[in-house]
Amino acid sequence: MTRIGIAYDRLRTEEKMLLRAARSMGCEACPIDVKTVRAGTGDGRGAAPADAVLERCVSYYRGLHYTSYLEFLGVPVINRFDVASTCGNKMFVSLLLKKRNVPTPETDFAFSSGAALEALESAGYPKVIKPVVGSWGRGVMPLRDRDAADAVIEIRTVTDSPLDRIYYLQEVVDRPPRDIRVITIDHEPVAAMYRSADGFRTNVSAGGAPQPCEHTGDLGEIASRASEAVGGGILGIDMMEDPVRGVLVHEVNNTVEFRGISEVADADIPGMMVRYAVSCVRK
Ligand SMILES: Nc1ncnc2c1ncn2[C@@H]1O[C@H](COP(=O)(O)OP(=O)(O)O)[C@@H](O)[C@H]1O
Ligand SMILES: [Mg+2]
Known about the structure:
The protein is built from nine helices and 13 strands. With 283 residues, the protein is of the alpha+beta class. The protein has a five-stranded antiparallel sheet.
């Protein structure tokens, strides 16, 4: 019987759906609470916990480090270490998208508070500042003028964690009050939704309401190209609609949440995810 691991640090609706899907497909579903895992290089440690693992940690760094360990053990992980590592960082994703000619908002980067302020003053406002590592819209803020920029940069210089020194400054896309999420599996778009919200951020976790969206045509094609740019696996491709340029990909999510999209899309997303994990098992 194929053993499919679901690695988590918080058992959300999504992880329960995946465990159920694995069982209903006749697999052995192996829940792995990464917070309790003991790992090491010594002999006798590290029996493979499953034949393939869907890595679903909320914490990017926890998930990434556990992924490196699974790959050390020879266990296929979705997503692969290199994909997870890239997608957890918005700067790395923006660069790859641009390099592969996937339409994406123009973004400036700076590596000190002084350089960030200079970039803002020369490019002009408004801009969106984002933490390079983060999700659920946390810390994503429009900077409408110099006063807002000064305040945000000042806070960053006080907290001064290593990532606070990396400034990601993006053009504000003149979009309707919604964005688009497309889920891709192995470069194939399988489901899409609009997320609408009145505030600046449209994340479902920030109150964005999911609505049905077709994943065919241009949208699906751009999502596939974004998946190819970052290395594939199971991804959440986030896009905004620009009135002139069409859809722009602004983010590729590595451990994609799919509770909202499941409410509005016909596709059996957890079923497809488990089937993909089974296809990754080493023969
Ligand atoms: N450049 C932008 N122009 C307009 N709105 C944006 C822009 N970037 C992000 N947003 C809004 O903020 C939300 C969160 O930004 P996002 O880059 O997806 O960060 P997170 O990883 O935290 O979800 C987006 O879903 C979108 O609604
Ligand atoms: Mg997002």
